[in-house]
Amino acid sequence: MKILKPLFDNNRRWAERIVQEKPDFFEQLAKQQNPEYLWIGCSDSRVPSNQIIDLMPGEVFVHRNIANMVIHTDLNCLSVLQYAVEVLKVKHIMVVGHYGCGGVKASMGKQRLGLIDNWLGHIRDIHRLHSEELNKLDEQEKFDRLCELNVIEQVGNVSSTNIVQDAWERGQNVSVHGWIYSVENGLLSDLDVTVDNEQYKPEID
User: Fold this and answer.
1) Whole-model pTM?
2) Taking the CB of residue 100, how many other CB atoms lie within 10 A of it?
3) So which domain of life are we looking at (predicted)?
4) Rounded alpha-carbon distances, angstroms, from residue 51 to 6, 56, 57, 180, 186
5) CATH number at residue 143
6) Residue pLDDT, tens place only, 109-138
7) Count of the separate structural domains present in the chain
8) Any catalytic annotation for residue 98?
9) Whole-angstrom Cα distance, residue 204 to residue 149?
10) 24 annotated active-site
């Protein structure tokens, strides 16, 4: 008996349903991927990228980690970003956080958690930078706002990478967006921090 047989059963039902709806779907999918979108999101199992924006496989390139962070020493994330921008030529990069993020919540506490403390330190830096604003809020408001501020900070991090800067310098059409998702109602909100090549001004010697 196969281990995790229910998951294989689910897979077969899913594949059969897709073929019924679009008989040549997998044949076309196998030939290439040509997504216009890169989703940088949280690993939280409640925040599945394709389902949230109702896109099929092949329509969105995805990178997920704890608390949807873009850190300049994270070669995994940067490799995904480079491939998406330089090879797939995506037009939109969405940094997508969510309210109730466990990583953000953990960063607000004082308990030592082990290896992940090194990762969460980046969110604690965001908390410190915005402490004047955050300290005026109650705990739930502070939690929600820090989830938003984390997304905004990561939009800045994406935009300042040499990958995106070089793309803008050569005139490539790519925009960076900051969104946040509510697990309670299933809806996305735009944090209105979009950056694109129209705003990029290369330095002139």
Assistant:
1) 0.91
2) 16
3) Bacteria
4) 20, 8, 10, 15, 10
5) 3.40.1050.10
6) 988 889 999 999 999 999 999 999 999 999
7) 2
8) yes
9) 32
10) no
